[in-house]
Design brief:
Number of domains of chain A: 4
Largest sheet of chain B: 5 strands, parallel
Oligomer: heterodimer
Number of helices of chain A: 21
Strand content of chain B: 5-15%
CATH topology of the largest domain in chain B: Rossmann fold
Radius of gyration of chain B: 23 Å
Number of helices of chain B: 15
Structural class of chain A: alpha/beta
Strand order of the largest sheet of chain A: 2-3-4-1-5
CATH topology of the largest domain in chain A: Rossmann fold
Distance between the termini of chain A: 24 Å
CATH superfamily of the largest domain in chain B: P-loop containing nucleotide triphosphate hydrolases
Largest interface: A-B, 57 and 64 residues
CATH architecture of the largest domain in chain B: 3-Layer(aba) Sandwich
Structural class of chain B: alpha/beta
Shape of chain A: globular
CATH class of the largest domain in chain A: Alpha Beta
Chain lengths: ~400, ~325
């Protein structure tokens, strides 16, 4: 399965975070100052361009200082009422074990529009009264929407990471992945991404995953044409070839991870083969490719790989009988995006699953499936029973909050 | 006020308290009397008392301190060969002190063990028979390799008959002092599908609403606890919105962690309940069955189910054309 390198190689502690030492130092001092007394400004506002490690550094700080960490994307909870509900609570109630708490409201830029106006105001009110440090994150602190809010915040600016530092970090990742990489190649990727370390890592993954060597030529070749274009061309050939051989050849031309290419085809097939008969054939071809992947897994016989390729290239091309060719833009595999989105939620679920397992003689996997949904309903409706069950199951506060608040979001 | 999950609160502690699977319980009691237990396989559908029977057996064998002589492993969480190599072996090989010279190892959800792990387990079972007895618990004994099956005494658990379900539920209702209306009680029986654990969970959750439990309460509670809108997904697909249907599917699998096999089961039920022409139902049953088989073999759930959804889209299209 596809795991993103930005997740996999995410720094866990502050010293590992790349760049912005000064800003990080300020933030740390400010959070520590809470130990002595509540500072004048009860919130810190981190701002700066995307992908420079703002969120990361708050997570690492919470980890380093052993704080209870409460995080929400403000853009998901935009109304005043919703914000009050999660942040208001977290800013007032004591933690279960007397631990200190750190509250993060991420992606404040996401609060937009008239109907959300109350949201920023609600945040301001919460900050005035909070008992715990609150960190806000947005790209642009000087947006007029934040003009009042700004006055209550300690502003900390995050800068673009220098491409030297980015390149050095990429090198570290390559070493961990067992890839030998030419210095020039990494420098090139770093430059191209102009200080956005997250997108640099994504590029590196697209270029280097599945190889053991990365030369300047490999990178420069792709630089000539954008990497997306390469995959788009492959997709175009596969979706619109009239014979098997052309479609099959496309995969040789493509220097992309076959599993990744599969995801691209799987995502886009219904958009390019809209006739129901064609679509059924195409999805069946992908299902067959997948079955051969499974056979490779269970037998470790990699010669079967050619059949995987047959079905995901020629199989798709030959599905087209009735759909008229029509240009539709290709889109990024949603499944991969969703996997990383839902990752933290699944992490929480499986932690609760482990707790249930300890009490209920059932695997954590089945606990998540069969018992957790009932707990959510109970926690939403009956605080008394919920409190009793939380104690009995030994749930911590974040778990309790997850069960109470996170019901049935879609 | 203390609360716990009622499934645990009312789980029988001793074989004497087990009100169902009478034949099996009798045989297990005879093991206790003889102070000897063979390796066992407990097979049968969920919520029929397999784990409870195993725990009760251990309790009755060793008495109150039974936990010291018992290890519970769950193959769904620890399915790899390393668990067998390390955890199981370490436990199995050391002798126990006391009247009974062996320990008991309960391996729950054993049908989720990999083939390799089962092979390793088979050797472990043989080598340490003197010091450890294994109780393997599975939904399908067919997924346990033949050599293990032949070393175990098989016990086949069946769905609880309606009267027994009713009896147990009534007992809990009375002890917990909840007000269940007649139609609410029927609804619990219906949604439980013969699975006592499910029935008790539905009961407790419905009771948490703090009002007399009607059928409506039960269905709403169970509906919210099952965010798997399989029917809606099928409707979308048949109407021609394949992409929308796939999105729903994706959410079920990724966001709610619903197992593909459960989705398939639900699709199968919904197709026969739906109002499509009768001859289409049987055509589609074949498609569903094929997908089911592929999942059992370990294919990618979303990809296989998507292929199935595409077939539904195709079927919907043909039906509209008046086929």
């Amino acid at each position: 399965m596809y795991t993103s390198w930005t997740e996999k190689h995410k720094p866990k502690t502050l010293p590992e975070v790349v760049g912005n030492r000064e800003a990080i130092g300020k933030l740390k001092e400010w959070v520590k100052s809470w130990d002595a007394e509540t500072p004048k400004k009860r919130a810190a506002f981190l701002y700066g361009p995307p992908g420079v490690g703002k969120t990361l550094c708050v997570e690492a700080l919470a980890n380093d200082l052993n704080l209870e960490f409460v995080e929400k994307n403000a853009s998901d909870y935009r109304t005043a009422e919703a914000i009050q509900q999660f942040a208001g609570r977290a800013s007032q109630y004591n933690t279960l074990f007397g631990k200190k708490r750190l509250i993060l409201l991420d992606e404040l830029d996401g609060i937009t529009g008239k109907e959300d106006k109350g949201g920023v105001k609600a945040i301001t009110e919460i900050i005035k009264a909070t008992k715990y440090p609150i960190v806000l994150i947005a790209n642009d602190v000087y947006d007029p929407r934040f003009s009042t809010l700004r006055n209550y915040c300690f502003l900390i600016k995050f800068e673009k990471t220098s491409s030297y530092e980015v390149a050095r970090h990429l090198d570290k990742i390559c070493k961990r992945e067992g890839i030998w990489a030419e210095e020039r190649a990494l420098k090139f990727i770093a430059d191209k991404n102009g200080g956005d370390i997250r997108s640099a890592i994504n590029d590196l993954q697209a270029l280097a995953q599945g190889r053991n060597k990365l030369n300047y030529e490999d990178v420069a070749w792709l630089a000539a044409r954008d990497r997306k274009e390469v995959i788009f061309n492959v997709l175009k050939t596969i979706f619109y070839s009239r014979n098997c051989l052309d479609a099959k050849k496309a995969i040789d031309a493509a220097d992309v991870d076959p599993d990744m290419l599969f995801e691209w085809i799987y995502e886009n097939a219904p958009l390019h083969l809209r006739d129901p008969h064609d679509l059924a054939k195409a999805m069946e071809a992908l299902a067959l490719a997948d079955i051969y992947r499974g056979r490779i897994r269970s037998t470790q016989d990699w010669t079967l790989l050619r059949y995987v390729y047959d079905f995901m290239t020629a199989g798709i091309a030959m599905s087209r009988e009735r759909t008229q060719p029509q240009w539709v833009p290709f889109r990024f595999p949603e499944r991969i995006r969703m996997l990383s989105w839902t990752k933290s939620e699944r992490g929480m679920q499986s932690q609760i699953g482990m707790k249930i397992k300890k009490k209920c003689h059932i695997s954590s996997v089945r606990a998540v499936k069969e018992i957790l949904p009932y707990l959510k309903v109970i926690f939403e409706n009956n605080a008394e029973m919920a409190a009793g069950l939380a104690k009995w199951l030994d749930l911590d506060e974040t778990m309790t909050e997850y069960l109470t608040k996170n019901t049935q979001q879609t | 006020m203390g609360y716990e999950m009622w499934t645990e609160k009312y789980r029988p502690k001793s074989l004497n308290e087990m009100a169902n699977q009478a034949e099996i319980v009798e045989r297990l009691k005879s093991f206790v009397k003889a102070k000897n237990v063979p390796h066992c396989i407990f097979a049968g559908p969920p919520g029929t008392g397999k784990t409870t029977a195993a725990l009760c057996l251990a309790h009755d064998l060793y008495g109150e301190g039974y936990r010291e002589h018992l290890m519970e492993l769950n193959a769904s969480d620890e399915r790899g060969i390393n668990v067998v190599r390390e955890t199981v072996k370490t436990f199995a090989r050391t002798r126990t002190i006391g009247e009974i010279p062996f320990k008991v190892l309960i391996l729950d959800e054993a049908d989720n063990m990999t083939g390799d792990a089962q092979q390793a387990l088979r050797r472990t079972m043989e080598r340490f028979t003197e010091t450890a007895r294994f109780i393997l618990i599975a939904n399908y004994s067919g997924k346990i390799i033949e050599p293990i099956q032949s070393r175990c005494a098989p016990f086949r658990f069946t769905y609880l008959p309606r009267e027994q379900l009713i009896g147990r539920l009534k007992y809990i209702i009375q002890r917990e002092n909840v007000n269940v209306l007649d139609d609410g009680f029927e609804a619990i029986l219906e949604v439980s599908e013969g699975d006592l654990r499910k029935a008790i969970n539905a009961l407790q959750t419905a009771a948490s609403m703090r009002r007399p439990i009607s059928a409506e309460t039960v269905y709403s509670v169970v509906g919210r606890a099952n965010p798997t809108d399989v029917r809606g997904m099928i409707t979308l697909a048949m109407k021609g919105d394949f992409v929308g249907a796939r999105e729903k599917l994706r959410k079920m699998i990724l966001k709610y962690g619903v197992a593909g096999s459960d989705i398939i089961k639900q699709i199968h039920i919904e197709i026969f309940r739906s109002e499509i022409p009768e001859r289409w139902k049987i055509k589609l049953a074949d498609v569903v069955g094929e997908a089911d088989f592929r999942l059992v073999q370990g294919a990618d759930e979303e990809v296989q189910l998507s292929a199935l959804l595409a077939r539904l889209t195709e079927a919907g299209y043909e039906m509209r054309k008046g086929e």
